[in-house]
Structure formats: C-alpha cells, structure tokens
C-alpha cells in the first residue's frame, strides 16, 4: 500500500488531499492519527501491503495507471522508511521558477525570480526546515527567492531572543506607550495637560529681554543641535548615500530650523521644520553631475527624501524629542523636509513654555540659565500627574481565522499607511494573504509536540547552485548532509500553528500581528495597526512584544528561542530597522551558515555586488549535461509522488520508481526528472517527508501526442500556472483548502 489510505480504498476528491495527510488507517475521523511510538520516539506503525487506485473504476485504457497500480508499494525511501515521522505529512504542488516585477526596487521588468509551490498541508517541522532554506509563505503559497539570479536578494533574518538587549530607542518606545496607558500623553503623542497646568506656566514665565532670544528661538536652537547630532550619526552609520555622506561630513551646510509654514506640514500639526536634507542632497547632486537642475532633478529629489528619512530614524534615539512627533514630507510636497510637532492638534494655543517642555528644554530657560539656579527653579513647570485610571492593554493569541474587526482594521491600515486603493483590498485578498495557512495544528502542552533534529539543523546546508562547503565536496559534489538523529520536543501553551495576536486598549482593537509558531521560532509574517495611533510606534512595540512572547514560550519549549523577522534586503531602506534588533543573523544561501548581520553588512553587503557567500565557501565548476542528469536522478531519490487523475488522488510512489517504470517519451521524462530534481534541491532533506502532487492526466496527454515536436509549445513543466492539476481540481482546491 502507498502512503495514503482512505475509506473504501480511494480518496473521494482533491479536497481530501488535505485531510488524508493526517488520517489513521483505521478511522476516517477528523482527529489526527497518532501513530504508536517506540521508547525512542519513532513511529512503530507500518501499513499493510496492497494497492488502491485513482477511483472505483478499473484502470482500463491507461498504460501509465496500469503500471503504477500494479507496482508493489511499501513505505517510500528516506526518513519515512525509518519510521521518523511527525504527526502530519506535507502535501505540495510544485510550480517551478517564475519571475515577477520587484516591489523593492520598483523594477518594471520581471527581475525578481522565485521558486514557488502551493501547499495543501504542511507540518510545522517541515515549514521550519523550509524557512531555514529561504522559503516564506503568503497564505498557502510558498516561495523561495533565487538568490543568485534576482535583482534584490532577500536573506532570512533571525534574532536569538536570549541574547537580545533593547536599545535606548526601543526602550523609548516602551516608555512612550506606558505614558499613554497612564494618561500622560494622548494617542497622537501629545502631552495631556491637567487642569491648572497652563495657567501655572503663564504665571511662572518671565518676559524675555527686548532684543534678546525668544522662547521660539530656544526651541529652534534645541532642535538644530539635535539635528546636527543626527547628521553626524547618519554619516558614521552608513545610512546616507556616499555622495550625500561626503557633503554632510564636511559640515559646510548649516542646520537651520524655522517655524513650519508649508500647508502640508502645518495641516499635520507641525510647529517647526528643517530643510538641511534638501540642501545637502542638492549640493551632492550637483557635484555628481546629476543635480544641475536642483530639486527638479529626480536624483536630488530621491536623495533628499532618503536623507530626511535617515535623519528621522537617527533622532528617534534622542531624548530631546520625548513626546514629540517627527516626520518627513514626501516628494512633491516639500520633499525632504523634516517636521516637528509637540502636538498634532490643529489650532493648538498652548504657551511656548509648554512647547519647550515637550521638546525637552524645560531644564534651560531662554537666557541659558540652568534650572539649578533659584530664578530657573521659580519658573519650572509642575510635572504632570498621570491619569487616575490606567488604560487596560491586552494581547490575545488566537488561531488564524477570518475576523471582521481585524479585516476592517487591515483595510484602514493599507489605505492610510500604504496608500492602497480601498477597492483593491477585499475579503478574498485578505483571507488568502493573512488567514489561509497550510500549517497543521499541534495542540498546546503536548509532550511529543514536534520531531526535530537533535543538533537543531537537519543537514540544512547551502542551496544556491555553484557553491558548496568543503565537507559537501568530500561527500559528493551535490549531496546534502545526511539526516541526523531526531528528538521530540514539547509544544508551548499556544501549540504550534498560525496565529493572530490581537492588541487591544480598553477593548478596542488597535493592532494585529500575524505569526507562525514553529519548533524553533516565532516567525513574524505581517503586522498592521490603527493609523490613529501612529505616534505610539505600534509596529516597533509589536516587535518587542513578539520577542518577549518567544522568551516566555522558551520556558516551555527549549528549542523555541528565535524570532524570525522575514527577509532582510540590504538595499531596501524600509528593512534597515531589522538591523536595530541585535544580535541578528542572516542565513547564507551558499553555505547554510548563520552569520552575524553586522559583520556581513560590512564584509559583503556594503560592496553592492549582489549575491555572494557570507561564510567561507568553495566554488563549484559548472555541470556538464551528463552530470546534470545524474544529479537530477540522485536528487529524486527520497522524493514521493502523489499521483492524481482529474480531481482524485490515487497513490503515493517513490519518484525514482515512477521515472524508471513510466512509459513516457524521453523528452517528457527528462523534463519531469529535471523539475523534480530542482524542487528536491530547493526544499532539501524534507523532500523525504513531503508528497509531490503529479497529474497523470497531463502526463498521459503529453505521452499520447503523436507530434513530439510540440514539446516547444510553451507548455513547459516549469514556470506555468497549470503544471499539475486540471482546472476543476484547481478550483476545488481554491474553494476548499
């Protein structure tokens, strides 16, 4: 018998592909089958001998089905043959390599290449292995960027939570949020005045000397000093373009801060504005020969925006701006200007003394006298007392499922933060992106929660062609490391699954984190928040809370100690924030080694040469055609094909047996061998615990084609949308899985 079993000897429809991944050979219940295990933890179950077919029909008139149906079946080769099984099997439909436009560098050509597959069921152990090989999922779709042949190589990045220490900036986020919960600031970050505070400030303030510095001058001077520090910081941390950094490092462009006048800034509550980023970028553009026309040139425009954003990030660490909103305007509306606001409320009539306190300058009066002096102490403002009633803040972790309240929050976030057209954000797209998941749940607290490699890495070496470790070359040029011994680990209280973490303040949903909890990590998939609370930095707060969640889960599941932040793309400014959570590590696609992000950034990424190994690797010579065929045959060993006719699942059979026995034309068999081999190299050792769906209808159709020259008719196995299943089966999968 093959891997699958179903009532009456066949699977009723393609929807059962999902269910059969965890059925017992004795029942058809919805509860997953827990195979009896030996003391060592391995499964002791073996199926009875026999075969079953694609449907109750006889296999008349189909030579391929006849041969496969007659083939004696036991457990396929590989890990499953040794009884090393998790609770569930993984069932996928491979789509090969495809190309698309890039959302990171905004390329209009198909320059971003990935290997894609749709997953109908996936064990948490297999998905852990996959994300360690550069895979990620979007709903049920899984993809692995082709690192050495894509415009913006994305690298998997993770953080060891037990080594993490928050920075001053990250602590500031927590303090600001605590201040909001205690009622000292509002959701826009503006200080909340208690009754009598304004009057006390006016009474305490002494008039300034005629011709002397005004209170507004003092505020501007304080901001100028903070911006100057930010410019110096950006020059040293490498966040500026080389040309811009060269101009900024000379100090020839003075930092000037003035009262905000632009409507686009004052409409958002800006009190002051600084245009130093525009001035620096303009000079850098002219010296590079790209900015003769000033900001009418796209080069200077883009550099001004980039510089302004870098300054805003640098000033987040500055204690000067506690309770102050800082942002930069985009191109076309005073692009590159950095704006400051102690309050985002229009028509704010607070005294300048209060604005000084918001900017952190209440320790110095306008004439420079320290608050240690008697005159300064007599003018100091009484600290604001917190609200008597603290707001209630909760984070609830729930299994991934559609929730109308979450959906409406996501629509607002996409529209206001990312500028999406509301008509483009519908329930179907939301569900496919953030709700659907192929991961099979393991209940919380289960002692045998997941079967994982004892050394934490299941032979997961490099997967990019052309490179290898010296140890790989000794074993054989293209071999993966053998699968090592495994052990069972307990599930955390939440269990292993896909979850939505709901952030609520006094019962109101303000943010949602979409995460996958796996044997080694919490993988952060997406985070969206209420735009009305932007000043509270809920995105950063969510990252800190997810890290803390992993620390707590680690007490119950010792292997669960990492926080995965998705991909890191060095040339994408929006991803630079991931460098702030230290120590973070990147996965090297050439060697499979985890390398410190800070070291890799200096030694490899800053060179701007595209993909390159992070660790010491050996370059492999190109394969000749004969060696490529041999490699594909070797990689197919251990792969298990799930044979499908129409929309019904037949049986599972080792790929090597199918390729040897199936009466297919040489060209079709060669393409199938190449496709399976490439998929096997992409997924690594978990190929042994996966079922690779293959459509017999498609193979039969091609095998019966009298004109073998039609192999060039664009119906290639790799990169097409309908490689495996027919339209009816595909619609059925979309509707049910």
Molecular structure report:
This protein has 737 residues and is an alpha+beta fold. The chain has 22 helices and 23 strands. The strands form five sheets. An eight-stranded mixed beta sheet has the order 10-14-15-16-17-5-18-19, with helices on both faces. A seven-stranded mixed beta sheet has the order 3-4-2-1-23-21-22. β16, α16 and β17 (562-568) form a beta-alpha-beta unit. α7 crosses α9 and α9 crosses α10. The chain is globular, with a radius of gyration of 30 Å. Residues 1-83, 196-213, 291-297, 344-386, 706-725 and 729-737 have low confidence and may be disordered.
The biggest sheet amounts to: 8 strands, mixed
The overall average pLDDT, rounded, is 75
Low-confidence stretches: 1-83, 196-213, 291-297, 344-386, 706-725, 729-737
* Percentage of residues in strands: 15-25%
Number of strands: 23
Rough outline: globular
Query: What is the terminal separation in angstroms?
Result: 26 Å
Computed CA radius of gyration, to the nearest angstrom: 30 Å
> What's the helical proportion of residues?
25-40%
Strand order of the largest sheet: 10-14-15-16-17-5-18-19
**Derived structural class:** alpha+beta
Q: Helix tally? A: 22
């Amino acid at each position: 018998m093959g891997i699958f079993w179903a009532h009456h000897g066949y699977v009723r429809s393609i929807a059962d592909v999902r269910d059969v991944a965890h059925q017992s050979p004795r029942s058809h219940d919805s509860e997953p089958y827990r195979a009896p295990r030996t003391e060592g933890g391995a499964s002791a179950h073996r199926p009875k001998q026999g075969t079953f077919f694609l449907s109750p029909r006889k296999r008349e008139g189909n030579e391929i089905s006849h041969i496969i149906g007659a083939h004696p079946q036991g457990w396929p080769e590989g890990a499953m043959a040794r009884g090393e099984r998790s609770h569930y099997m993984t069932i996928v439909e491979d789509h090969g390599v495809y190309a698309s436009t890039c959302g990171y560098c905004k390329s209009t050509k198909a320059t971003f290449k990935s290997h894609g597959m749709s997953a109908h069921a996936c064990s948490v152990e297999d998905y852990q292995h996959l994300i360690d090989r550069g895979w990620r999922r979007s709903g049920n779709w899984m993809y692995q960027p082709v690192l050495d042949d894509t415009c913006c190589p994305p690298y998997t990045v993770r953080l060891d939570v037990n080594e993490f220490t928050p920075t001053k900036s990250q602590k500031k986020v927590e303090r600001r949020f605590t201040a909001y919960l205690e009622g000292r600031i509002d959701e826009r970050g503006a200080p909340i005045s208690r009754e009598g505070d304004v009057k006390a400030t006016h009474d305490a303030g002494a008039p300034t000397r005629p011709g002397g510095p005004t209170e507004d001058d003092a505020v501007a001077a304080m901001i100028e000093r903070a911006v100057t520090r930010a410019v110096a910081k950006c020059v040293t941390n490498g966040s500026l373009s080389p040309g811009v950094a060269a101009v900024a490092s000379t100090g020839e462009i003075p930092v000037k801060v003035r009262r905000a006048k632009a409507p686009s800034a004052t409409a958002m509550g800006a009190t002051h504005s600084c245009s130093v980023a525009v001035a620096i970028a303009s000079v850098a553009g002219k010296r590079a020969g790209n900015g003769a026309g000033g900001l009418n040139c796209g080069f200077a425009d883009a550099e001004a925006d980039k510089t302004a954003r870098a300054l805003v990030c640098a000033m987040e660490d500055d204690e000067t701006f506690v309770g102050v909103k800082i942002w930069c305007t985009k191109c076309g509306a005073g692009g590159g200007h950095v704006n400051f606001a102690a309050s985002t409320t229009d028509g704010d009539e607070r005294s300048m003394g209060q604005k000084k306190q918001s900017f952190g300058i209440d320790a110095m009066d306008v004439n420079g006298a320290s608050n240690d002096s008697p005159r300064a102490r007599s003018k100091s403002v009484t600290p604001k007392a917190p609200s008597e009633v603290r707001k209630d803040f909760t984070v609830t972790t729930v299994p991934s499922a559609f929730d109308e309240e979450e959906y409406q929050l996501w629509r607002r976030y996409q529209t206001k933060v990312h500028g999406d057209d509301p008509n483009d954000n519908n329930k179907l797209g939301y569900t496919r992106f953030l709700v659907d998941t192929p991961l099979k749940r393991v209940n919380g607290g289960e002692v045998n929660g997941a079967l994982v490699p004892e050394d934490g890495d299941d032979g997961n070496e490099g997967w990019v062609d052309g490179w290898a470790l010296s140890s790989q070359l000794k074993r054989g040029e293209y071999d993966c490391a053998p699968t090592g011994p495994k052990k069972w680990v307990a599930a955390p209280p939440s269990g292993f699954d896909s979850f939505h973490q709901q952030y609520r303040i006094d019962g109101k949903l303000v943010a949602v984190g979409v995460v996958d909890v796996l044997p080694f990590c919490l993988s952060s998939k997406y985070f969206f928040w209420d735009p009305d609370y932007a000043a509270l930095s809920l995105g950063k707060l969510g990252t800190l809370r997810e890290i803390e969640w992993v620390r707590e889960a680690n007490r119950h599941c010792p292997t669960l100690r990492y926080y995965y932040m998705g991909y890191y793309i060095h040339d994408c400014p929006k991803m630079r924030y991931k460098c702030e959570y230290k120590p973070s590590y990147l996965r090297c696609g050439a060697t499979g080694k985890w390398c410190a992000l800070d070291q890799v950034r200096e030694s490899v990424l800053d060179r701007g040469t595209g993909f390159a190994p992070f660790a010491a690797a050996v370059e492999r010579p190109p394969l000749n055609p004969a060696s490529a065929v041999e490699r594909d045959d070797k990689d197919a060993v251990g792969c298990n094909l799930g044979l499908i006719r129409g929309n019904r699942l037949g049986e599972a059979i080792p790929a090597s047996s199918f390729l040897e026995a199936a009466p297919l034309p040489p060209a079709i068999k060669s393409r199938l061998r190449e496709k399976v081999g490439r998929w096997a190299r992409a997924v690594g050792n978990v190929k042994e615990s996966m079922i690779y769906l293959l459509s017999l209808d498609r193979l039969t159709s091609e095998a019966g084609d009298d004109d073998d020259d039609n192999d060039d008719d664009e119906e290639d196995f790799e990169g097409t949308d309908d490689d495996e299943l027919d339209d009816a089966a595909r619609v059925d999968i979309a509707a049910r899985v």
